[in-house]
Specification:
The protein is mostly helical. The protein folds into two domains: about 1-50; about 65-115 and about 165-225, no CATH class. Helix 4 runs parallel beside helix 8 (about 210-220). A three-stranded antiparallel beta sheet has the order 4-1-5, covered by helices on one side. About 45% of the residues lie in helices and about 10% in strands. The longest helix is centred in the middle third of the chain and has 32 residues, at about 95-125.
């Protein structure tokens, strides 16, 4: 499988051994075939030999940009550039705000998951016993002392598996209020719903990402940190 270069500002993907990683723009990665198919559907990857424009030189958005193109543009833009574009192209102002809300919610969700994973890894790290000096008493075999009142540390509880892509895709077929209400009741799955909403919009250009859903997910992300 040929390597792929990341075209978006960053992508999150599953490696060949099942771990979750993040790759940044212009980075060449050996993606599993399933991840290549998924990310190429969003225009997030190019061939390894493709030369991407240098960071800092913003491309102009097309006349009728897709939701993914708006989100990608906002990721690479400064706040001043976003404000300037909203002033010169007021028809994009609401979509730029929605894109910023989506990025904040997505970033908060990813950060929360990484922090939780680091906490579990730190708690699971075994502590080495103190060194024993046999010269202190050559005739004595050191015996570890066990405190009968000490509690055995509990193994970290594995994080419950979230929504599958198919389940999330089914949920976003509802109207915006139904989806927003579902997110409010299941805030830990907000990121999965955002990804499904993006897939739904990408599949039908006449049905863009709904701001009600994005704002609900952004609010949910603020309660799950």
């Amino acid at each position: 499988m040929p390597n792929r270069k990341v075209r978006h500002a960053l992508v999150q993907y599953t490696t060949h051994d099942g771990t979750r990683e993040i790759a940044f723009r212009n980075e060449v990665v050996d993606f599993p075939q399933g991840e290549v198919d998924r990310l190429e559907a969003y225009g997030a990857l190019v061939s390894e030999g493709t030369t991407l424009q240098r960071p800092g030189r913003m491309l102009a958005l097309p006349v009728s940009p897709s939701d993914q193109e708006v989100i990608t543009w906002v990721i690479g833009a400064t706040d001043d550039e976003v404000r300037a574009l909203a002033e010169t192209r007021p028809e994009l102002a609401a979509r730029l705000d929605d894109a910023k809300a989506y990025i904040v919610a997505h970033t908060n969700s990813v950060t929360g998951r990484l922090d939780a994973a680091r906490t579990v890894a730190a708690d699971a790290t075994p502590q080495a016993p103190p060194p024993v000096d046999p010269a202190a008493d050559p005739g004595t075999v050191p015996v570890p002392v066990t405190d009968p009142n000490a509690r055995t540390p509990e193994a970290p509880t594995p994080e419950a598996e979230g929504l599958s892509s198919a389940e999330a895709d089914t949920i976003v077929t509802g109207n915006a209020k139904q989806v927003a209400d579902w997110i409010a009741e299941h805030p830990t799955d907000a990121n999965a719903i955002l990804e499904a909403e993006s897939r739904r919009a990408a599949a039908d250009p006449d049905k863009p990402v709904r701001s009600t859903v994005v704002n609900a997910a952004a609010a949910a992300a603020g309660h799950t940190q």
